[in-house]
Amino acid sequence: MKTIKHIRQCAHYVSAVAVVFFCVAVVSGCVGRKVDVKVKDAEGAAELQRLETSLRVTPEKAALNPDYQISNQIAVPYVPEYRLGPGDVIEIVYHISYGKTSEEYRLEVQDKISIHFPYHPQFSSTVLVRTDGKVTVPLLGDVEAESKTPGELAADLNRAYGKYIQNPSITVALEEFNVKIDELKKAITTAARGQSKIAPVAVDGRIAFPLIGNMQAEGLTLLQLEKVVNEQYSQYVRNLKATLIALEIHHPKFYILGEVEKPGSYEFTTTTHIVDAIAMAGGYNQRAYLSDVVVFRNDGLERPAAFKLNVASALRNGDPSFNVRIRPADIIYVPKSPLSSANDLIDKVFTKGVYGIMPFTTVFSWGAKDLGGDYDDGDND
């Protein structure tokens, strides 16, 4: 029976592209694998360092490997962008610019303006820009005001009143403005760190934002949501930029069933491969048949898919091509004997296994050739 220590050592080995397999005392940790370096003295340590240098993933190597990406000319392991989900908590930090700008102020809904007739004061008035963007003035009735500068509105009024009054000379002055910014400030005054608001992603996948209301967040990256939020705010408040910060994140889960020590659901905390997943479940037991491990995948696909993995070969030979990356909502099944047909698979996994630990209602329909006994790699241990 393989030990948990053994499976974890092997998981570390096969999940890297270029890995130094280093055994000081336990040479038999992975059967059949030649030890690259034996460290017994200073020369052995130096040899290990030279080997690590030769195997280090460079930007040139990373460009050819999907498990790596290049950031600022440095090769780093590829980590998919995190996507928001229910239970996540984000902080919205509001940056309001009060700096001088060459752009003229344009009227907004709820701004208060005074319209002054110097020679006909009986027509002078103070009005609010209504939610339809208009103001009501004597003689003319409703006039469009929203998005115009005070000067543009004054010019429109002078042209219109010129039909009734000789040389009206109307001026428009701002009495109260930036009302939306004031509303926003009131909505975020309780924040511990100033102009910000802490908001959770609700169970329906949405977040409630001041002024712009509920917006869909689930499935978006933080940068994608930030872009959409700023686009919405720009329709209401000028000179505003919102920055989103993830305070708490939910960890998506995968599920592992069958011949492992601790079947159940497990959270992702980092990039996880199939051998890592088995190790997280306490390792496989002595009944496990590792040549026919099956992964069910539905995340981001137009229909569910399933595929077999020869984990036995991955452990024995250290071949990373067998050690695929696990995705959120994957279901891993470690059988205790070869799976001879699709019916056998569905009976063992769906009828007796999956429903015990998770709700899963998607209908799978594979033919025998997809998952049946025609899979043979010549490895039955």
Chain-wise SSE layout:
Layout: H1 4-14, H2 42-55, H3 59-62, E1 68-71, E2 74-77, E3 89-96, E4 112-116, E5 125-128, E6 134-137, E7 141-144, H4 150-161, E8 171-176, H5 179-187, E9 196-200, E10 206-209, E11 213-216, H6 222-233, E12 240-248, E13 253-258, E14 264-267, H7 274-280, E15 293-297, E16 305-309, H8 311-317, E17 331-334, H9 342-351, H10 368-371
Parallel strand pairs: 13-17
Antiparallel strand pairs: 1-2, 3-9, 3-12, 4-5, 4-8, 6-7, 10-11, 13-14, 15-16, 15-17
Considering the chains and any ligands shown, give keywords for the structure.
3-stranded antiparallel sheet, wza like fold, elongated, 10 helices, Outer membrane lipoprotein wza fold like, 5-stranded mixed sheet, 381 residues
Describe this structure in words.
The protein is 24% helix and 22% strand. By secondary structure, it is an alpha+beta fold. Among the domains are: 81 residues, 2-Layer Sandwich (wza like fold); 65 residues, wza like domain (wza like fold); 120 residues, Outer membrane lipoprotein wza domain like (Outer membrane lipoprotein wza fold like), CATH 3.10.560.10. A hairpin with a 5-residue loop joins strand 13 and strand 14. Helix 1 runs antiparallel to helix 7. The chain starts with a helix and ends in a 10-residue tail after the last helix. The N terminus and C terminus are likely disordered.
